[in-house]
Design goal:
The structure is a single chain. By secondary structure, the chain is α+β, with helices and mostly antiparallel strands. 28% of the residues lie in helices and 21% in strands. It is built from 11 helices and 19 strands. The structure holds oxidized coenzyme A. The site of oxidized coenzyme A has 21 residues, from α8, β13, α9 and β16.
């Protein structure tokens, strides 16, 4: 039975620190995962949770004392978890499931829950201490600039038990008072500390999602086996962008009945146009690309087909038609997918759009896109053609109702007036929310977009 808690590994670069607070006293009954000391290192201030439970018999550290990884912090005399130990012994190590996500911990006040309440997870904790997966430092700088939005209430993925969170007691208190689980909050502070602003931003996200929609439906989580049973594995903390993408995609996939409509656009003349006028746009500071042209064409298509520039609100039984045309463009960056928005694309010239697209893509790749830059989009374009591929089925970026995917344009033989002629054909894929849009409308919309690319003057007939 473990009766002494030693300072565990705290992260790749933290091997010691100064005890700034001791949260426990002799005689306290404590539980695994309960914060016991606050430790200040040169990198961050961390609360260190215990991996053992029991009644504290001795505290080996005091405030202001320097401690190293492996130093004894406190001892317990009765080991409240002793009763669970036979259970652990029965289970062969490799068949033990992952420790359960923690229960709602009250990080900055010693919790007084009865030990039996957590008997199951406590038992596992005692044998699989906090250091089983070395708690990693949060990649703070990456999270800081990439936080697209506060995390929504689903899925309720909790931190790995034992991974400490750096935050001051007042921030923890605030989180507790407003009902935020501090372990779910991403930090925006380069030091890795969770700040008051982080907690407030997270709390705002709990009430509504990014676009002000109702809270999303819960997405069931897939239970993971212990992969170490079959070989070596490596753990990497999800970046804020990856986490957010995962949540958005899962929510959209679970709640939107998708249909994907395919077509091809003959962009031979557009390619000739790009070659001819690319220099002019370059002088203005942009790049006349297929994506830039598509943004302009899509803005016109959204005016022609308002149901594609809408949101379906099943709760109120309404369709919300937006009278602005803000086109999001998926940008592939080192840290994942970012979707900045080109506002009022219907009112901008092609050159203006090309310049803005170059700017937002550069900004996204330089990690400078703000939350504001990504909000308010009414339709999204995802062009993977620069990378390759013949087709893909994009996922609608909720609460929008449609997204256009573009694959690599290639020269193909096209049968025209009795002869095969080489034409540059761009594969298009339109995914849409079948609750809001019928199949025939999907086909019409995409054909209209293809025709507008083939004969741009056609648009003017309706304009
Ligand atoms: N077919 C053939 N070639 C294409 C093409 C297409 N559909 N789209 C772009 N290209 C070419 C461009 O012409 C350019 O070639 P040159 O350098 O010879 O002129 C090259 O590919 C690179 O294009 P680009 O990336 O500079 O410019 P872009 O405006 O076409 O694309 C952007 C901008 C931001 C959309 C793109 O860089 C990008 O990030 N795409 C990935 C989007 C993504 O990840 N989507 C997935 C989201 S869903 O999981």
């Amino acid at each position: 039975m473990a009766n002494q808690f030693k300072l565990p590994e705290l992260g790749e670069n933290v091997s010691s620190g100064t005890v700034s607070k001791v949260f426990i006293s002799v005689g306290d009954s404590i539980e695994p995962d309960q914060p016991v000391i606050e430790l200040e290192s040169d990198k961050a201030v961390l609360e260190v949770p215990s991996s053992i439970g029991g009644t504290v018999s001795e505290i080996h550290v005091k405030e202001g004392q320097k401690v190293n990884v492996g130093d004894a912090v406190f001892s317990v005399k009765d080991g409240a978890k002793a009763k669970d130990e036979p259970k652990k012994a029965e289970a062969p190590a490799e068949e033990k499931p992952e420790p359960k996500p923690e229960a709602d911990a009250e990080p900055d006040a010693p919790a007084k829950k009865p030990a039996a309440e957590d008997a199951e997870s406590d038992g596992k904790e005692a044998e699989a201490p906090a250091t089983r997966r070395a708690p990693k430092e949060r990649p703070a700088a990456r999270q800081a600039e990439s936080r697209p939005a506060p995390a929504p209430p689903v899925p309720a993925r909790r931190r790995t038990p034992g991974a400490p969170v750096a935050a001051s007691p007042s921030v923890r208190r605030l989180a507790r008072e407003i009902g935020v689980d501090i372990y779910e909050v991403a930090t925006s502070d380069p030091s890795g500390r969770v700040t008051e602003e982080d907690v407030k931003a997270y709390a705002r996200g709990l009430n509504t999602d990014v676009e002000g929609m109702a809270p999303r439906p819960a997405v069931p989580e897939i239970e993971l086996p212990d992969f170490t049973r079959w070989g070596e594995v490596e753990y990497e903390e999800l970046s804020a962008v990856r986490r957010r993408t995962a949540e958005n995609m899962a929510a959209a996939w679970a709640s939107i009945p998708h249909v994907t409509q395919f077509d091809k656009a003959d962009i031979t003349d557009i390619e000739a146009f790009r070659k001819k006028y690319g220099k002019l746009v370059e002088q203005a500071g942009g790049k006349l690309t297929v994506t830039a042209i598509l943004v302009r064409v899509i803005a016109a298509a959204l005016k022609k087909f308002p149901q594609f520039n809408a949101t379906i609100d099943t709760a109120s039984g309404e369709i919300i038609y937006k009278r602005y045309y803000h086109v999001g463009v998926a940008v592939d960056t080192e840290r994942g997918l970012i979707v900045p928005v080109i506002r009022n694309a219907d009112q901008k010239s092609l050159t203006e759009i090309a310049v803005e697209l170059s700017e937002i893509a550069e900004k996204a790749r330089a990690r400078k896109t703000s939350l504001e830059d990504m909000q308010g989009g009414t339709f999204t374009i995802s062009n993977l053609g620069g990378i390759g591929g013949t087709a893909f089925t994009p996922i609608v970026y909720a609460p929008q109702v449609a997204i256009l995917g573009v694959s690599r344009a290639q020269i193909e033989p096209v049968y025209i007036d009795g002869t095969f002629v080489p034409r540059t054909m761009a594969p298009l894929a339109l995914s849409y929310d079948h609750r809001a849009i019928d199949g025939a409308d999907g086909a019409r919309f995409l054909r209209w977009v293809a025709a507008a690319l083939e004969q741009p003057l056609l648009q003017l007939l309706d304009a």
